[in-house]
Specification:
232 residues, alpha/beta, 5-stranded parallel beta sheet, two-stranded antiparallel sheet, WbqC-like family protein, WbqC
């Protein structure tokens, strides 16, 4: 079984979905400490005057000292503001309407006040289903695994892989320096690194900026084209 692991990011960048497509199981790593002003609660979309701007999901101030899984979203009506920010695409992006409907399906959950991990995991599952990606997605905080309280960054993936019986672990190539290949290989786990491939597309009225949120990609190229790219 090929396993991938990543913290829960808010509408993550497009390469993550191609990485998920290549794995059989994906673990949402929501047990580390929540980090303010990170990809966990914000991301970037295009902007016609300043290339890009942030979109964010605010977390309650008192909930920023614990684990990601415990960080409660603010109940301030921010979801409407989030959707309103996407209007910059309205007259330019060919897939604006369907993408906004998809974003709404992600944001307006039935939970009373979900955590950021609830939102980001729900979003990841909705987006994967939209793109035809059937990888199993599970939150680490909801799994009964025998793991220590603390470990080095490159060791978590090894221990989770071992607990789940994975024989291949795939990590984003940017984290290569964190891993000891001998630790994995000596325990029967092949260590792989996902290498991104370029994805460029026309953005009339905007400057093309790589690695924005998947929202941006869906606005310009739509579900079918992105789904096909993820399978390459």
């Amino acid at each position: 079984m090929k396993l991938g692991i990543m913290q829960p990011y808010l509408f993550p960048y497009t390469q993550q979905f191609r990485h998920i497509q290549q794995c059989e199981q994906w673990i949402v790593f929501d047990t580390p400490k929540y980090t303010r002003k990170s990809w966990i609660n914000r991301n970037r979309i295009a902007n016609p005057t300043k290339e890009w701007c942030y979109i964010s999901a605010p977390v309650m101030k008192g909930a920023t000292t614990g684990a990601i899984s415990d960080a409660v979203l603010a109940d301030t009506g921010w979801r409407k503001d989030f959707v309103d920010q996407l209007r910059v695409y309205e007259s330019k992006a060919p897939f604006y309407t369907e993408t906004v409907q998809l974003v709404k399906a992600c944001l307006f959950m039935n939970n009373k006040v979900p955590t950021i991990a609830d939102l980001n995991t729900h979003t990841l599952k909705v987006l994967c289903q939209h793109l035809g990606i059937d990888t199993k997605i599970t939150r680490l905080s909801e799994m009964n695994l025998d793991l220590p309280m603390h470990a080095e960054p490159g060791e978590w993936a090894y221990m989770i892989s071992k607990e789940l019986g994975a024989n291949i672990y795939s990590n984003a190539s940017g984290g290569r320096h964190l891993f000891d290949p001998d630790l994995y290989e000596s325990n029967g786990i092949s260590l792989e690194f996902y290498e991104p491939i370029p994805l460029e597309f026309s953005t009339p009225g905007f400057s093309f900026v790589p690695d924005l949120s998947v929202i941006d990609t869906l606005m310009w190229i739509g579900k079918d084209n992105l789904s096909q790219w993820c399978k390459e």
